[in-house]
Amino acid sequence: MVEEVQRHSVHTLVFRSLKRTHDMFVSNQANLPEVDENLERIRKAIKARDSYGLVFDRTARAKEMKALRIEHSDPILAITNTPANVLPSESSSALVPVGTVASTTGTSKQFVAPAAPNAAPSNVQLIPKKAPTIPKPKWHPPWKLYRVISGHLGWVRCVAIEPGNEWFATGAADRVIKIWDLASGKLRLSLTGHVSTVRGLAVSAKHPYLFSCGEDRQVKCWDLEYNKVIRHYHGHLSAVYSLALHPTIDVLATAGRDSTARIWDMRTKANIHTLTGHTNTVASVVAQASNPQIITGSHDSTIRLWDLAAGKSVCTLTNHKKSVRSIVLHPTLYMFASASPDNIKQWRCPEGNFIQNISGHNAIVNCMAVNADGVLISGGDNGSMMFWDWRTGYNFQRFQAPVQPGSMDSEAGIFAMAFDQSGSRLITAEADKTIKIYKEDDEASEESHPVNWRPEIIKRRKF
Q: Cross-referenced InterPro entries, in alphabetical order (predicted)?
């Protein structure tokens, strides 16, 4: 009679196997083999050589070179005194000629070796070289608020100054573009046509045209002689956040949330180039006559310099660690600045060489403006404004924009700013639905508002 084999689950069989293994080796649990120290040392040496072989070889070579220098060095460590008509550098026993040598601290000194102890006194002495100095910032008068203009029914998102300096235009979340008299601050005209927030404005210096873009994906050209739209530029796939006019040729640059910048023929409405390469929203675009003619800043933390003829990126600047929301060109110098929550950085064209960091504006910097006098102003998302000296990065004034009565304190953000053509008036577009105009304080002087400049607190320039 064949006995039936009892069937067990896989779980039971595995458990029994583990139990047999445990019972077999439990008696030898504490009896570990002795460690061979020689083998252990060899194992560690092999591991170290495998991981740090290059370091060991370089250290060995450095020690050999040091030993050779010590072996062949001359034991005479002093320069004997020479006649008065013989220069120290002409002495045959001089080890170190009179000249500039680098010190271990990084500064340079004029070094002259002393005479031998038993020699007659001479006029040889240690002449310290003047340490490199940080340039003193230029004095700028402080700025003050002198006019607040109300009229929009939503956040004011953009501002543009007319080249004749007679009026300026603003666009807001109420979908209306308003034209204001610059001298009196009175409303001249309201233009309606956008169906969503107006995010960018530009006034042509050669034509009676006003260009606008918005979150409705539309780019419009307004004829200011008839106060109506005469052209639409179709092509963006999402909201258009910024636009710029080329100063010498009839092209328009726009950028937006579809991660591209587009170059348009102003007259034919043709999309000449689509500048692709950014991986996130392009928040700012500027145009200039010399190369690079187009510069863009994006939420992917990069700045790109574009070849307008080829429609390709020639350089990508990756120094920023956070979103680049604003780029501004200096009106007279061949430089530009970019703003991000980590730092404001200055660059030199055309290669985009890094110049310096301007640190201290601890906020999301939405906008910047600079005038020919070297005053750089940055506006933050919390209503803070910082006034900087362009050359040195010295912060000579801080200002908190007051909110309109009845507004919440959280509506203190500054979205756009621009100097008028003279550089003596600053116009800001803000979240409390107002436009504010600032001017220099005429009563201020260097005695009443001195430059509080201490070189030791200025941080070293770094990336």
A: Prp46/PLRG1-like, WD40/YVTN_repeat-like_dom_sf, WD40_PAC1, WD40_repeat_CS, WD40_repeat_dom_sf, WD40_rpt
The span from the CA of 126 to the CA of 354, in Å, is 37
**From CA 411, how far away is CA 417, in angstroms rounded?**
16
SS3 at position 60? helix
Structural domains of the chain, with CATH: 193-318 (2.130.10.10)
The pair of structure tokens assigned to 116 is 């031998």
In whole angstroms, what is the distance from residue 376 CA to residue 228 CA? 35
CB burial class (10 A; 0-12, 13-18, 19+) of residue 386? buried
Q: pTM for the full model?
A: 0.70
Ranges of the chain with pLDDT below 50 = 76-122, 457-463
Task: Report whether the peptide linkage leading into residue 142 is cis, meaning its omega lies within 30 degrees of zero.
Answer: no
Side chain identity, residue 307: D
Q: Which residues contact 299 (CB under 8 A, 6 or more apart)?
A: 280, 281, 282, 283, 323, 324, 325
Burial bucket for residue 363 (CB in 10 Å: 0-12, 13-18, 19+) = middle
